[in-house]
Amino acid sequence: MSTAKKTAKKVTKKTAKVAKKTEAKTTSALRKGTLAYLGLYGVAAERARLRAEQVKGLYNKTTDGLFEDLVARGEKVEELALDTAKTAQKRAVETFETTTSKVKSIVPTSLPFGANDRVEELEAEVKALNKKISALSKKAAKPAKTTGINKDIMKTDKKAA
Asked: In angstroms, rounded to a whole number, what is the distance separating the alpha carbons of residues 106 and 132?
């Protein structure tokens, strides 16, 4: 058994050495990967900065007078929009006037008072009629009071006997 223990210790030591080497390689590879990523980020940032400077230079060279041209075009569009809005407004006013005149021609003007007055008059009339109806229903709901003996009932009872 002593040889088995010695062999086991040797294998354990070798395994530990291999594990340490593997761990060192893994740590080194991880560190190198992280550094490569940072380097890639740095290159991308530098290239983006260069491209931005190129675009800015091109823009400054090619946009001479572009802003003024855009302002002039905007003024033309504004003028067209105002003309269109004024035309639409005129059409709306004309349509309103013609429709109003048609409606006025249909509504009878022979009434001695306006349509709103007639509506108010009818509402007042309905209110008065509702009061009369409620008063009549209250009277009908109350039974007639009888005082003493009803003579008509007594007469019919005597004749029947």
From this structure: 36
Q: Is the pLDDT of residue 62 over 80?
A: no
pLDDT in tens, 27-51: 888 888 999 988 998 999 999 999 9
Tens digits of residue pLDDT in 90-114: 999 999 999 988 888 787 665 555 5
Buried b (16+ CB within 10 A) or exposed e, 16-38: eeeeeeeeeeeeeeeeeeeeeee
Contact 115, 107 (CB under 8 A): yes
Q: What number of CA atoms fall less than 13 Å from residue 75's CA on the CB side?
A: 6
Instruction: Report the distance separating Cα 94 and Cα 126, nearest Å.
Output: 40
Per-residue pLDDT, 44: 92
DSSP state of 150: -
Asked if 111 contacts 118 with a C-beta cutoff of 8 angstroms, the reply is yes
122, two tokens = 């009818």
| Rounded-to-integer distance, Cα 40 and Cα 46, Å | 10
Output the pLDDT for position 74.
93
- Take residue 103 and report the two structure tokens written for it: 């409606």
Judge contact between 108 and 115, C-beta under 8 A.
no
